[in-house]
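User: C-alpha cells for this complex, please. No commentary.
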Amino acid sequence: MASLITPLLSVAPTRALVDEKFKVRVKNLPAGLPFTLHSLHLSEDNDYWEAFGHYISNYNGTVCVSEHLSLGGTYTGKEPMGLLWSLRPVPGSRKGLRLRKKNVSSPLLYTISVYSGHLTEGFRDQAPLASVVTERWYMAPGVQRISIKENIVRGTMFLPPGPGPFPGLLDMWGGGGGLVEYRAAILASHGYAAFALEYINPGEMATAELEIEYFETAFNIVKDHPRVIPNKVGIFGLSFGATVAFYLASESNVVKPRCCVCINGHTIFSRGKSFAEQSGEMLRNAHLIRIDEDDNHMWRNLFLSRDNTLDMEKINCPVLLVCGEDDQNVPSVEIADDIERTMHAAGKGHLLTRINYPGAGHLIEVPYAPHFRVTAFMQSRTQKIMMLWGGQTKPHSDAQEDSWKKILDYLEHHLFSSPSLESKL
Amino acid sequence: PGRWFSRGIGRFFKSCRSVLLSVHPSRALVDEKFKVLVQNASPGAELTVHSHLLSEDKHNWEAFGHYICDSTGSVNCKSLTMYFSPVQFSLFYWRARHMLRKSNVETPLEVTVSVYQGHLTEGFPEHRALAAVLVERWYMAPGVQRIPVTEHNLTATLFLPPGPGPFPAVLDLWGGGGNLVEYRSSLLASHGFAALALDYLTNDLTITTGKMMKNDYFETAYKFLEQHPQIVGSRIAMWGLSLGTAMTLKMAAYSKVMKLRCAVCYSGSHIQPVNGSTEEILNNFLKNQDKTRINEKQEVIWHDMGRVQCPLLLVVGQDDQNWPAFVSAMDIKKMMEKAGNIHLLTLLVYPDTGHLIEPPYSPHTRASTFRSFENTSLWGGQTVGHARAQEDSWRKSLMFLREHLYGRRKKSNL
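Assistant:
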C-alpha cells in the first residue's frame, strides 16, 4: 500500500473525430522529471502500432504537449498531434503494414501512457505511471451508413444528420481496390452526402471488366438521391480515383460534377480500351518499373508518357489538384504541370487550383493518420509486391493536415455556397 | 431516428445556400462545454438555435436561444452551455417538470441541436429545421470501468479510472431520493478519481431487513475502498449531497474508522442526532419539513464541527427551499472559528441557487416530485443563477479534490 501518487494524465477531448486536435497534459509529476509519452493502438488486424515522445516536466511538474517540445522519440519538437501521426508498427511486426479501419461505426482506440525516463523500446515490459484511453471517430453522431447495391454498382453512402438536402460527393480510392469507407464517413461528418464507391477487388486492376459507365452510374446514384442537391455533387479521388475524376470532368456527356478534388492522379487514358486493357498494357512496361535496394517497387515512370492522355482542356468545372512532391507511385507534380499548361492554353486556368507538398508521398490521407512509405500491394490476385509510395513522415503528415483543411474549405466554397457558379443542368 | 424523417421531405431546391451548423465537440463528457457555429445563413437573419433531448424515461427536454446573424451570415454561440447564453435578444432556458436523471451511465445522452429560421418560442416539431446535428453527452470517459459492488452487504457501484493506478478515491453519497445514482461517480472517475456510489436508503440490506443503515454501513464502504489494491488508502474523500451531506459531516466529525483526506458537502446540514441512524435523521427532517428556518429553541443536536480534522468544502444555495443549508453553513463556520479549525473550511455560497446542485449543464429543476412526499417539493433557485452555481461549484470541487487527493502535502496526517 503506497502513498505513491500517480501523475494526472488527460487527453481532451477524450472522444473526437479523427480530424480534430486534442490536448495532452500531464500534471503532478516531480519537477524536472524526464518521461516518455506513449500511444498504443491495436488494429483490426491485431497489429500493434505505437508512437512516443520524450519530455521533461517543468518547474511545477506539468507538461502540455501542444506547448512543450518533444526531445526525442518518433516525433520531435512542438507537435500537439505527434502521438497519432508518427504512429508506426511496433518492432517485430510484419512488413508492409497499412493502417486502415474497415468498421467505421466504431472508434479507433488509443491508449496514451506516461512512462518514467526516456524510453525507446520495451514499453510492454514496464508498467506506465498513468494511462488514459481516447476514442477517434470517423462518423459524427447522427451520420447514417447505408449499404448500396444498385444493379452492379456497389458501395456505401454516408448521410449527414439533419433534414438536408445536402451537397454530394462521389468518393473514390485507387487501384488497390476494395471498399474503403472511412474518408466518405468523415466527409459526411462535415455535411456532405458521400458515397464510397467500390469498383474493383484487390489485385484485379488489370483484369476487371470495368467501363466508364460504371462510374457515371455511381455519380448519378448520388445526384438522384432524395436527400442530395442534384446540382451540387462533386468528386473526390485519390490516385486512380483522381484519374476517374479527370475522365468524368472532361469526357463524360452523362455527368457534370460541380467540382473535383484530385490527389496524386495520372491522366493516362486510351480511348476505346477498357480499364483492364489499359492497366494490363501499362504493367507490361516492366522495364519502366524500378525496384530499389529493399525490393520496393517504384511505379512513377509508368505514368510519364504523354501519349494517350485525357484532354484536360475539355474540363468545365473547378478542379483542386493536391500533389505530393515525393510521390514515387505517380509523377504527380509532372502531371500537374502538364494539366496546368493544357488548361491555361485553353483559357481554363481559372478553374484550376493546385497545391504541391514538398516531402509528401502518394498516400495523402486524412490528418493525423500515420504515414505509409512502403506497404504491401496486390499487383494481381496472387502476386504481392512492396509498393514504394514515398514521402518523409513529418512533411507528409503536415501535408495531410494542411491539405485536408484546404480541401474542406474548397468543398464548402463550391458545394455549400458560391451562387456565382450556378450551373444549368 | 429523427423527427425530420416523418415529415416526408421531397426535393427542396433551396436557392443557393445550405445553412451549415456545427457543434464542437460532438461527443463530450456532460461537464464539458461545446461551441455551436452557424454559417452560411443570410446576413442579419433571425435564427433560433434549439436543443432537444428525449430522456430515458421518455420525457422531452428542450432549450433554445434567439440570435441574429452577423454580416457574414454567421452566428458563433461562444461557450454555448445548453442552458444559458447571454447574447443580446436571447435567453436559453430549460423547461422541465421532471428530474433529468440517467440511470444507465454507460451510454450517452443524445441531444439534437437544430437551427430554425426566425425567432421561435414554441411548436418546434411543426417547423422544418434549416439544419440539425446530433451531439452525444457522456457520463463516462473511455477506459473507465464500472464495477457493481455487493461485498460485505454493500449496495454500491465502483468506478475506476483507466490506467494502472493506484488512485485516490471518493465515497459518493446522494440525497434522500434513494436508489443508486451513479453519474456523479462515473464523472469523477472520468477525472481520475476512483469513486464509489453508495446506496444507503434503498440498498438491499435496508430492503431485506427493513432497518435503515447505521454508521457502520458507511464505515464498511470506507474500508472497502481503503483495502482496494487500486486505491490509495490514505487518500479517500467523501462527497455528499443533501442527506448525503448530513452523513458526510457526521463521519468527518466523529468516525474513528474513517480518516478522510477531505470532504465535499453540497446543500446539507449538520443538524442531526449524534449517535442516531439514517432513519432518525430522515424522521427528524420529516418532522421539520414544514419549517424553513432552524429554531434554536427546538430539541435538536447540532454536530460539533469543531471536531473536523480534514479540509471541508461546503457548497450551499441561498435559495435552497428544501434544507436549511445556508443557515447551517453559517453555524458551521461559527463553530469552526471558535474551535480554531476554520482554516480547514472553504465555503461557497451561491445566490439565486436552490437545493439540487448537480454536475453542470444539467437542466435545473425548480419543482419536481420527490419520493415519499405527496406534494410537489419546491427545490428553489432561479435558472440562470443555479446553472452558474453548478458550473462554478463543480469546477471548484474538482480543483479542491485534486489539491487534497493528488497534491503533495507538506505535513502528513497519516
